[in-house]
Write a structure and sequence with these properties.
Layout lengths: L1 E6 L4 H15 L8 E6 L14 H9 L3 H16 L16 H12 L3 H13 L8 H10 L4 H9 L4 H14 L6 E4 L3 E4 L4 H11 L38
Parallel strand pairs: 1-2
Antiparallel strand pairs: 1-3, 3-4
Helix pairs in contact: 1-3, 1-9, 2-3, 4-5, 5-6, 6-7
Length: 245
C-alpha cells in the first residue's frame, strides 16, 4: 500500500495528524507493507523570506480578532495535540516561509531520514518557537535529526530539491487537495484532516492488504455444519501421509 501525506511544517493539525496516523499504523497488522511518502504543501507560499513576527499576530489580522480570541483558537489545537503526547506552545510560534524547510525534507528522504527530520522541524515550530526561515536554525535541527552538516549547508545554500517541492504542490492541485493534512491511499482514496487514530486504522484495514479467504462450497440441501470436519476424509492431502479414508 502506498500512502502519500500532504502537509506543511507550519501546520499544527499536520503534526497532530502525523502522530495519529503513526499510532494507527503501529496497530495495523500489515504495517510493513505500507510505504509512506511525505509530500510538501505550503499553506502560504507567498510568505516573506524575512522574519515578520509571531503567528498569533497573523491570526489576529486574518480573522479580525483580539489577542485573547486568537489565543483561544490556538488553545483548541493545543488541547488536541496533548491527546497524542505533544505540548504545543503556539503562542510562541513564529511566522516563516517554509519552502527551504520543505527542500530539506526532500534531501532527507534521499538518505532515509525524512520522517525524523520532518518531526524535528514540526516540533521546532509548534513546540519550541523556532524560526524556520533561518538557515542556521534549519541546519541545527536537521543535524540534530541525523543529517550531515555539510550536506545540509550545501542544500540550503542553493536551490536543490526546489523542483521536488513544486512537483508535490502540483500533484496536490491535480488531486484537488486544498487543505492539509491530506492522506492519499494508492492514488484512489483520500482522507482530509487530522482524524482519530481509530479512523485511520479502519481506513488501513479497509483499503490496505487483505488476508485472502475462501468460503467452503456446500452442495445445495446440505447444511454447512455437516461438511466434513477432516480434510482427508474428502480425499485431500493435509500432510505427506495422504491418509486414504
Amino acid at each position: 500500500m502506498h500512502v502519500e501525506i500532504f502537509s506543511d511544517i507550519a501546520c499544527p493539525w499536520c503534526y497532530i495528524g502525523k502522530r495519529r496516523f503513526q499510532e494507527a499504523l503501529a496497530n495495523y497488522e500489515h504495517a510493513d507493507e505500507v510505504e509512506i511518502v511525505w509530500r510538501s504543501f505550503e499553506l502560504d507560499p507567498n510568505a516573506p523570506k524575512e522574519e515578520t513576527g509571531l503567528t498569533i499576530d497573523k491570526l489576529k489580522s486574518k480573522y479580525g480578532v483580539g489577542h485573547d480570541e486568537a489565543a483561544r483558537m490556538m488553545a483548541g489545537a493545543a488541547r488536541e495535540a496533548a491527546t497524542v503526547g505533544l505540548e504545543f506552545r503556539l503562542e510562541n510560534a513564529r511566522q516563516a516561509n517554509t519552502f527551504d524547510a520543505h527542500r530539506l525534507t526532500h534531501y532527507a528522504a534521499t538518505v532515509g531520514l525524512q520522517e525524523p527530520v520532518l518531526e524535528a522541524l514540526m516540533n521546532g515550530y509548534q513546540v519550541d518557537g523556532e524560526y524556520l526561515g533561518s538557515a542556521e536554525t534549519l541546519e541545527r535541527l536537521a543535524v540534530g535529526a541525523g543529517l550531515d552538516r555539510e550536506a545540509v549547508r550545501t542544500v540550503l545554500s542553493g536551490d536543490a530539491y526546489a523542483d521536488a517541492v513544486r512537483e508535490d504542490e502540483t500533484r496536490a492541485r491535480r488531486l484537488g487537495v486544498s487543505g492539509v493534512p491530506f492522506f492519499v491511499f494508492d492514488s484512489t482514496s483520500g482522507i482530509s484532516g487530522a482524524q482519530s487514530s481509530d479512523y485511520f486504522l479502519q481506513a488501513l484495514k479497509q483499503l490496505g492488504p487483505q488476508v485472502e479467504k475462501v468460503t467452503r462450497f456446500v452442495p445445495a440441501g446440505q447444511a454447512s455444519e455437516t461438511a466434513p470436519a477432516r480434510s482427508a476424509e474428502a480425499g485431500v492431502c493435509v500432510d505427506d501421509t495422504c491418509e486414504v479414508p
